[in-house]
Amino acid sequence: MQVPDNFLQACRTRYGTTGSDGFGIPGDGYLMIVDASPGGLCNDNWLLAYANACQLEGNTDRPILGFINFCPNRLDENYPMSKVLLYTAIHEMGHALGFNRNLYAFYRDEHGRPRTQRDPVTGMPSTPRDEFGVFAPSLDGVDLENEGSSATHLTHFEKRVVHDELMSGSVELPSIVSGLTLSVFQDSGWYDVNHKMAGNWKWGKNLGCEFITKSCSEYMAIRRSRKEPTGPWCDYFDLTRAQCISYNNAYNYCNMNLYQQRIEPDKQHVTNHQEREFLAGDSNKLPSLLYTYNTVEDPKKI
Fold it and tell me: Is 110 a catalytic residue?
């Protein structure tokens, strides 16, 4: 990724300098470089875009340079892909700004003090690295994703817990910028956050601690024992069974799929179907009540 010369310092050599200083960025600024280069990670056909922070400010560890690269073979201006790309752009911007497993250990508290103990010699976080070569978060809070590739693992909220939140591991329509994501940026110590801008996020709302702490199977079993609805999880295979929900101009259905290979026992949630061992939800196998917008409305207004 090429950084424009205007943002670079001159290169000092043994006998002088080469080049000249650019005008740089303001002291509280951030330079985001956006590109659409093929190859590299874009060779994975499923990838829409990727991002990272490239440079940190020396005194506060705040990211000051980052990039987003869109895979040109996946660019599509037609709806609904245009909406997916929009939410993907915002999602990747979140990674470049600091929602990144490689940066958690550099977060600072409201007084500017490192949240993670630093090595007195190097000034770097002294937390041991785990087998994935990243700093493992230690604070209690919302679970991080424990599945997927290195690009997904620990760099997103746990999909089961947050589903359509912007910083889950896969983009939904719509993806909601909730108070969770805003709180992460506030707790980084690098940003002032306006929590009034949080979206109206309804996933799991008012469902209690059991929804967060139990597996979807355990949660559904508890709800059934009380003769209560199991939503947002579901355990039936019927794509024609739709229902209205609290989102405007939307309905939901159970995203159960019939797979050719037997599903792992811990991801089998259907009990009343002869092919239950082959039934599961979408790519993460979670059988949830997905909502979809009524396509009669102008998609540009969604």
Answer: no
